[in-house]
């Protein structure tokens, strides 16, 4: 479009008297200033739309819009400046009116297929052009990325076989019968066999294929189909634009098991694998780093919608897939050969690590560069510690939580964990929580791994801070404490995890009531019974202290008591008044005991004169002698008769003692 030439060669349309008269008749124009009047003409195969607006009662040119079927241009007539932005910014689309019949016909002829034969058609034409531009830009980007992605190779069939063999969930399906022996079949090899002493969700080993199976009782499974999801990643060397690089492809893996209730012959297993994420890394002296391309993107998500969308590649910020959030099981074949190109980890045997941990390649390499003992931890069977170590190494291992308990520069597993060789040999495959508990306990107590195992078996190893607090406060050893919890668990038929919280509550109450921590106090025969007894003592002590304060304040409150023969109103001066009122009327007045004892508010009870002990309505009076609440059974509102009684009480009693009550109430608060 030769915009400048056209503007010079074509003057603005003249505003005729006829146009002015039509503008005067348009009600919308007289109410606000907007570009809702227009004229249109076709000149040099170009559509020219001129808009007008009424300013200070005078019709004036506003903008001129040029359209040649490919591009748009807009001129502000007041200063002749060419404007940028969308046409929508300069048009009033919803009440546009042509100032002559010729303009309407011009718009119909120029846009014959549109449903909007006015300047709205101009906006929709612009939208179509912008959409085509976006598609062209998008296609160029897609073609460029497609070209770059051609350096990736399709994973071998062995990778998909590994997924089915190693990552699939294997089960022992059985129908429970009374007795030790249970008959069922292995979902992996489909052989039927009999297993002894099994339980639902427990684990056994298949007698035929040697797979570790999860036991599932058909009577306890509600579903008729089972499904699982996991992730697997394939790491390879590629040539990225003439430079050597390492690529990681992550796949979403879905496992489905159908008809498992119909026996081994009819059970159907299905595996679906969809590529989800790609990443390219470059190697350097310091290790690896994400390799950025011209779009500043190093992650690409491929087929993330299972081919149901036109999206082929996109930035991770547009979907999902951030560093540290793409954990997957890494295919170990030739993994050491690939990692040998990374100088920061040298000849470390990471193939011993990857079968036992779910992580992303980037995090694994960064952790291996910071923690030389990672390889040896895996070879010594400490698999549960690998995950926490790798997660801590993703950013900066020395500033992580686990770094306070280890020597991360050591390559020996024993020296890395800061334990002697005998203790390391006695260590089984411990988790991060077990290791943390051991390191905290060993600071003050003599403990071995058998004691830690007992804490773990009772699922209380995660509460290391709670355990340390209770041991130090009661001056007891870890062994005696776990012995006591297990004994109480059998007596009370509760899990040790629940008893740990109960004992913490009990121990705090022992301090609150100032009891001496003797042997019988530290280890009560019945923890629940003793806990409840101390709770009652503590509650009674609390109410006793509150009653003293309430009684002292009650002398002031009783000065406002009132009886008119039909109703009476009386102040609450002891905790039993609150408890009884709350129980009978079913509301929350008992929660006001603390506030009333501190002098923050005041509670009165309204009674019928014929039954003065029976709660009827409860009234709240603040320290400024104002009634803030008046509620009855289940917080119901009072009838008009009770409201009239309260107004008489305010007039006959409160008004006489108001100033005195306010001054004394605030002093005693």
Task: Give a topology summary.
Elements: H1 3-9, H2 17-25, H3 27-31, E1 37-43, E2 46-55, E3 58-67, E4 72-76, E5 81-83, E6 97-98, H4 101-110, H5 120-149, H6 157-167, E7 171-174, E8 181-186, E9 192-196, E10 203-205, E11 212-217, E12 225-240, E13 243-258, E14 268-284, E15 287-290, E16 299-300, E17 329-330, H7 335-339, H8 361-370, H9 374-379, H10 386-393, H11 413-417, H12 421-426, H13 432-441, H14 449-457, H15 464-474, H16 478-492, H17 496-512, H18 519-522, H19 527-557, E18 562-563, E19 567-571, H20 575-585, H21 593-597, E20 602-608, E21 617-621, E22 627-631, H22 640-668
Parallel strand pairs: 1-6, 7-11, 12-17
Antiparallel strand pairs: 1-2, 2-3, 3-4, 4-5, 7-8, 8-9, 10-11, 12-13, 13-14, 14-15, 14-16, 18-19, 19-20, 20-21, 21-22
Structure description:
This protein has 669 residues and is of the alpha+beta class. The chain has four domains: 3-130, no CATH class; 157-363, no CATH class; 369-482, no CATH class; 544-668, no CATH class. It is 38% helix and 21% strand. Strands 5-4-3-2-1-6 form a six-stranded mixed beta sheet. The chain is flat. Residues 29-33, 292-311 and 316-324 have low confidence and may be disordered.
């Amino acid at each position: 479009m030769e915009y400048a030439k056209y503007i010079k060669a074509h003057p603005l349309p003249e505003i005729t008297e006829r146009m002015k008269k039509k503008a005067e008749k348009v009600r919308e124009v007289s109410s606000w200033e907007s570009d809702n009047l227009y004229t249109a003409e076709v000149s040099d195969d170009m559509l020219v739309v001129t808009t007008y607006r009424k300013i200070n009662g005078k019709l004036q040119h506003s903008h001129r819009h040029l359209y040649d079927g490919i591009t748009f241009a807009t001129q502000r007539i007041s200063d002749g400046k060419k404007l940028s932005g969308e046409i929508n910014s300069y048009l009033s689309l919803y009440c546009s009116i042509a100032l002559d019949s010729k303009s309407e016909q011009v718009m119909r002829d120029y846009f014959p297929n549109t449903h909007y034969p006015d300047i709205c058609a101009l906006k929709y034409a612009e939208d179509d052009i912008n959409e085509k531009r976006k598609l062209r830009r998008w296609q160029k980007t897609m073609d460029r990325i497609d070209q770059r992605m051609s350096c990736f190779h399709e994973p071998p069939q062995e990778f998909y076989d590994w997924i089915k063999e190693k990552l699939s969930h294997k089960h022992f399906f059985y129908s429970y019968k009374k007795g030790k022996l249970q008959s069922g079949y292995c979902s992996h090899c489909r052989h039927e066999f009999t297993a002894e002493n099994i339980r639902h969700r427990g684990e056994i080993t298949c007698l035929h294929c040697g797979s570790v199976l999860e036991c599932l009782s058909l009577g306890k499974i509600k579903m008729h189909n089972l499904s699982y999801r996991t992730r697997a990643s394939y790491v390879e060397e590629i040539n990225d634009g003439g430079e050597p690089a390492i690529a990681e492809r992550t796949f979403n893996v879905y496992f489905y098991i159908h008809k498992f209730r119909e026996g081994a012959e009819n059970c159907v297993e299905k595996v679906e694998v969809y590529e989800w994420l790609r990443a390219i890394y470059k190697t350097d002296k310091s290790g690896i780093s994400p390799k950025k391309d011209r779009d500043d993107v190093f992650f690409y998500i491929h087929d993330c919608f299972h081919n149901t969308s036109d999206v082929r590649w996109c930035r991770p910020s547009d979907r999902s897939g951030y560093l540290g959030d793409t954990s997957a099981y890494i295919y170990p074949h030739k993994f050491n050969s690939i990692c040998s190109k990374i100088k920061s980890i040298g000849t470390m045997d990471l193939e011993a690590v990857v079968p036992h941990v779910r992580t992303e390649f980037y995090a694994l390499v960064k952790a291996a560069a910071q923690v030389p003992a990672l390889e040896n931890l895996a070879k010594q069977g400490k698999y549960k510690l690998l995950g926490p170590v790798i997660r801590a190494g993703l950013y900066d291992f020395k500033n992580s939580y686990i770094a306070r308990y280890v020597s991360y520069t050591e390559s020996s597993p024993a020296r890395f964990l800061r334990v002697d060789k005998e203790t390391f040999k006695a260590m089984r495959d411990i988790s991060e929580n077990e290791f943390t508990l051991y390191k905290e306990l060993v600071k003050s107590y003599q403990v071995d791994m058998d004691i830690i195992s007992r804490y773990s078996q009772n699922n209380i190893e995660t509460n290391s801070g709670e355990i340390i607090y209770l041991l130090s406060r009661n001056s007891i050893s870890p062994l005696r404490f776990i012995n006591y919890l297990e004994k109480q668990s059998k007596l009370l038929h509760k899990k040790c995890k629940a008893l740990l919280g109960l004992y913490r509550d009990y121990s705090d109450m022992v301090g609150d009531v100032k009891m001496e921590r003797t042997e019988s106090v530290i280890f009560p025969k019945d923890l629940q019974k003793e806990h409840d007894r101390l709770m009652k003592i503590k509650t009674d002590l609390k109410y006793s202290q509150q009653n003293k304060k309430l009684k002292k304040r009650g002398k002031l409150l009783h000065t406002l008591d009132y009886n008119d023969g039909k109703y009476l109103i009386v102040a609450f001066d002891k905790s039993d008044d609150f408890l009884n009122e709350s129980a009978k009327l079913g509301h929350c007045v008992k929660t006001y005991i603390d506030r009333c004892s501190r002098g923050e508010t005041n509670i009165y009870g309204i009674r019928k004169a014929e039954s003065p002990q029976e709660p009827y309505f409860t009234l709240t009076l603040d320290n400024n002698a104002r009634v803030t609440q008046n509620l009855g059974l289940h917080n119901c509102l009072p009838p008009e008769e009770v409201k009239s009684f309260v107004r008489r009480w305010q007039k006959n009693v409160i008004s006489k003692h108001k100033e005195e009550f306010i001054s004394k109430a605030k002093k005693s608060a």
